[in-house]
Write a structure and sequence with these properties.
- The structure is a homodimer.
- Chain A contains 6 helices and 2 strands; from the N terminus they run H-H-H-H-E-E-H-H.
- Chain A is mostly helical.
- The longest helix of chain A is centred in the N-terminal third of the chain and has 21 residues, at 14-34.
- Chains A and B meet through helix 1, helix 2, helix 5 and helix 6 of A and helix 1, helix 2, helix 5 and helix 6 of B.
- Chain B binds a DNA duplex through helix 4.
Chain lengths: 157, 157
DNA sequence: TATTGTTATACTCTATAACTATA
DNA sequence: TATAGTTATAGAGTATAACAATA
């Protein structure tokens, strides 16, 4: 019975489509940043630093990266002159991570590059359709986030 | 100027949303299969074997896996009794890969599990919206495929 | 004792190259 | 010489655990 049942391909299912399209998007974004000498993870971290200075643990909580990875990313960003680390005066265990002027400029450039890459990726869709897609994906993502609430972020000085 | 420019978060851009939602889908699908002792890659390979027997090279062409990975996946599927390998009579370099009765049954079960996982993933959307999302993603994927055409597949015996 | 950042280690994935047997 | 399958190896990426400094 089961072996006789009509077997359907998973390939054209929505879940697979999401994964496939993401599989196109990830390398496209990475490619968009190579001319800046950056990767998406570094840019993601920079994005959380532009308004406030955060500890490494706080950055981990926001980006979802674990702390060992964060050490490596911040080493890279420090090397590039895009961020700085210094001991917190209120809690000497913590590092206050700050974005530099260069880092802000790099982030602005990266954002433009990424937007252009996204533009290219979404080119097959009309503006109204892109908005539709965005809204639908937002609903999916927000629903999943509603299940796993995070504790409020705490900014260090 | 650049450092003064309004810096926007990439987080709520469509490209990032696609990647994030895929980041939810991938583990959801893997989880859906653990009770069957399978992973998505194995199921993907099985899906291409239900109608025809293919050589390993052909399976690589269809799944996008490279041949070293395919060796490992087929080792696993053979171990599980879901597929068999035998030398092709027409070209003794090739292996004819066949899905077994058990393999077909496992694939049918896996398909159901994956559909249920997808159902759960898309639960926040109404049926019409799911269809919309599917159509939009299809357009994005098809557009990218149009650029890189594949040679016609050749079935072995 | 718990937390922050760091380092070291191991484990998985992937990509490459080399090897065999066949053509 | 080229192809199909296999094996070995090296690299990136990730996860885990242990460690020093501080709370």
């Amino acid at each position: 019975m089961t072996s006789r049942a009509r077997i359907e391909h998973m390939d054209d299912h929505t879940g697979y489509l999401i994964i496939k399209v993401a599989g196109m998007a990830v390398p496209a974004f990475e490619r968009a940043l190579v001319s800046l000498g950056l990767n998406t993870r570094q840019v993601r971290v920079l994005g959380f630093l532009h308004g406030e200075s955060l500890s490494q643990a706080e950055l981990c909580a926001r980006t979802g990266l674990d702390r060992t990875t964060m050490v490596a990313v911040l080493d890279e960003l420090e090397q590039l002159g895009h961020a700085t680390r210094e001991r917190s005066k209120s809690d000497r265990r913590k590092h206050v991570v700050r974005i530099t002027r260069n880092g802000k400029a790099a982030y602005a450039k990266a954002t433009k590059k990424l937007l252009r890459a996204q533009e290219e990726l979404l080119q097959p869709l009309a503006p109204a359709e892109r908005a539709q897609l965005h809204a639908l994906l937002s609903r999916l993502f927000d629903a999943s986030q509603a299940c796993a609430p995070e504790p409020a972020a705490e900014v260090v000085s």
